[in-house]
Structures are given as structure tokens and as C-alpha cells.
Specification:
Largest sheet: 4 strands, parallel
CATH superfamily: Response regulator
Number of strands: 4
Protein name: Protein-tyrosine-phosphatase, YWLE B.subtilis ortholog
GO molecular function, one term: protein tyrosine phosphatase activity
Pfam family, one: LMWPc
Distance between the termini: 16 Å
CATH architecture: 3-Layer(aba) Sandwich
Number of helices: 6
Family: Belongs to the low molecular weight phosphotyrosine protein phosphatase family.
Strand content: 5-15%
Radius of gyration: 14 Å
Structural class: alpha/beta
InterPro entries: LMW_PTPase, Ptyr_pPase, Ptyr_pPase_sf, Tyr_phospatase_low_mol_wt
Shape: globular
Length: 150
């Protein structure tokens, strides 16, 4: 199973979610990727995203390059999870044939609220964003485990 996390630029939230999910999830055959709806191809991960991921996971994502979301990427993935409900609505309307696999991360996990974009803000805001994503990923992984056991 391939899960695609999507945010605006693929330099903060979605790349953090990708690194976090791949570290947290130990379910065989499930892997996460990420992309940005308005990514500047090749942009580096934001410094504060890299700092927070290193603090929490011991992983270095500082040299990771942003990837632009494409229809092909969405076609190749089984589940597409956006950081905001607005972005999931936009993608569903633009990619109707894949609309059944596009959700916001909050919608899919049943948690209220979007994941706030920390871009350009303090490292403390990035730490809060990390916690917000982590809360939802724990629920997501539990849900995936339950679905596998059915």
C-alpha cells in the first residue's frame, strides 16, 4: 500500500508526515511518500522541519527535495492524505476518478481541524505542527492495523 501525504509546497508538513509515518509504521507493505500541490520542484525541506524531524526521529531530511503533485502520483497511490480540508476538496474536484481515495488527514482520522502551515514561522510552531501530525498518524496507523486484521 502506498500513502501519499500532500501539502502546499512539500517543504514542511507533508515531508514531515512522510518521514514520521515511515518511522512509526511497522506494517509490512505500507510506505509513505509526499508531494506538494504548488511545489517548486527541487526546493529543499525547510530548515525548521529538518530540525524538528532530527530532534524527534534522529533522521536527516535536510537534503530532501520537493516533489510536485501529479495525476500520475495520485494514480500510483492507494490513499492520498492532505494537510487541509480545502486541499482535499480541490484535489477531489480536479481528480474525480481518484476522488474516492483523497481525504484530509484530519478527516480520515476523525480529528478536528487542519494541520496549520508553519512555513516561515518559529521552530516552536514547527514542533507544534509535528505534534499535530503525530497525533493523527498514531490514529492512522491504528486504523490501518485494524483494517489489515479484518
Amino acid at each position: 500500500m502506498k500513502i501519499l501525504f500532500v501539502c502546499t509546497g512539500n517543504t514542511c508538513r507533508s515531508c514531515m508526515a512522510e518521514a514520521m509515518f515511515n518511522s512509526m509504521c511497522n506494517i509490512d507493505g505500507i510506505e509513505a511518500f509526499s508531494a506538494g500541490a504548488s511545489a517548486i520542484h527541487g526546493s529543499k525541506t525547510s530548515l525548521n522541519s529538518a530540525v524538528v524531524v532530527r530532534e524527534n526521529l534522529g533522521k536527516d531530511i535536510s537534503n530532501r527535495k520537493a516533489i510536485q503533485l501529479t495525476t500520475f502520483l495520485v494514480d500510483e497511490c492507494d490513499l492520498v492524505l492532505t494537510m487541509t480540508s480545502l486541499l482535499s476538496d480541490v484535489l477531489r474536484s480536479q481528480m474525480e476518478k481518484n476522488s474516492n481515495k483523497i481525504y484530509s488527514l484530519s478527516e480520515y482520522t476523525g480529528v478536528e481541524g487542519d494541520i496549520t502551515d508553519p512555513y516561515g514561522r518559529s521552530v516552536e510552531i514547527y514542533r507544534q505542527t509535528y505534534k499535530d501530525i503525530e497525533k493523527r498518524l498514531k490514529i492512522l496507523i491504528k486504523k490501518l492495523n485494524e483494517d489489515r486484521s479484518i
